[in-house]
Amino acid sequence: MEKTWRWFGPKDPITLDMLRQIGVEGIVTALHHIPNGEVWSLDEVMRMKDYIEASGLRWSVVESLPVSEAIKYAGPDRDLLIENYKESLANLGRAGVRTVCYNFMPVLDWARTELEYPNGDGTSNLYFNKAEFAYFDCHILGRDNARADYDEETLRRMDEIASTMDEEGRRRLVDNIIVKTQGFVNGNISENDLKPVEKFRELLALYDGMTRDDLRANMKYFLEAIIPVCREWDINMCVHPDDPPRQILGLPRIVTSDEDIQWFLDAVPDSHNGLTFCAGSLSAGAHNDVPALARKYAARTHFVHARICNVLPNGDFREASHLDARLIDVVRTFERERPGVPMRVDHAPLMLGDEKMGYNAGYSFHGRMLALGMVGGIMATVNTEKQ
Asked: Most CB contacts within 10 A, which of 62, 197, 248, 303?
């Protein structure tokens, strides 16, 4: 696999020169300064491509060319936004950038309740506390009938949290769930928003009454429109699994399981319609056998996110070691069956001063460097086995 790294542009404190020194081969990035829904011009694409190549690296993957909310909920400007998306894809194709990671998650890209959960060795990781998330849903958002979406044990834990929750705790949950995990990646919520909860409620309201079948139909409509452009320019689209892979906040989620993956691949049966195999997102659902899914969908995988999660009995989940046996199995599958496919490590721990650097949540330097070394070692071992 190609060793890639998610990089957030020229203002990222982690420089391209640093990445070249630690063995990174390709860059995963996007034109984050262009608002959602606007066309990525060829000039803008080439400016980024040339900047990356000047450091001896290549722009391997776009993550992401955002799918506007109106495309997902079928708003009145859906077709205009899709035309803009097709034009951006064509410009990427003209520049020779051929892999585009995207997601079709309504409103919320990914969810964690804690961004620096302490590990026993002094590092920290991202963490999802199901009861704290329920508190955010029921007591901060105040979503109608939200309690009905949670089991009795989670509600019991949530009520315990509610009995001691203070204003600082509420602010922390808002910050972690809908600001710090969203605002740095062309998200719907910006760190400059003064009333993020009110804006979040407005976004949720756009999906009132929408079912999984409705969202599936909208995804199929989008894919059928763009895949001819992808075919023309040989661009691989690869959807990211939902994170976490479950229904949340009353929103439909449609990339959560084996059945979901099979559905969208069959809905538009073209090799350019593929999967970002995020082992971490998939493993956050106890229903998913991640190594088996890797073997089943290797041929339609165009990008790999190498991380893994442990799901606890109460429904919480946390990031696990990059040397977890399941992830070793996943890396072995792709190293053998998809040589050259881009791979990046993901959601590594904060360590050795990372916590003081203000990195985007989940994107430390030292933690990811250690993870890249671990995964690189697995890859080297697999290649030795092949000889």
From this structure: 303
pLDDT of res. 186: 55
Q: Known catalytic residues? A: 240, 278, 305, 346-347, 363
Amino acid letter, residue 133:
F
Rg of the chain (C-alpha set): 20
Rounded distance between C-alpha atoms, residue 120 and residue 151, angstroms: 30
Written as six digits, the tokens of 366 are 């030292």
CB 243 within 8 A of CB 281: yes
* pLDDT tens-digit map of 115-168: 999 999 999 999 999 999 999 999 999 999 999 999 999 999 999 999 999 999
Q: Which DSSP letter does residue 247 get?
A: -
> Using an 8 Å Cβ cutoff, are 375 and 343 in contact?
yes
C-alpha span between 365 and 357 (Å, rounded): 9
Cβ atoms < 10 Å from Cβ of 267: 15
pLDDT above 70 for 314: yes
- Provide the residue type at 236 as one letter: N
Task: Quote the DSSP letter at residue 355.
Answer: G
Compute the half-sphere exposure of residue 56: CA atoms within 13 Å on the CB side of its CA: 9
The residue type of 135 is Y
Distance CA 38, CA 45 (A): 13
What secondary structure letter does DSSP report for 188? S
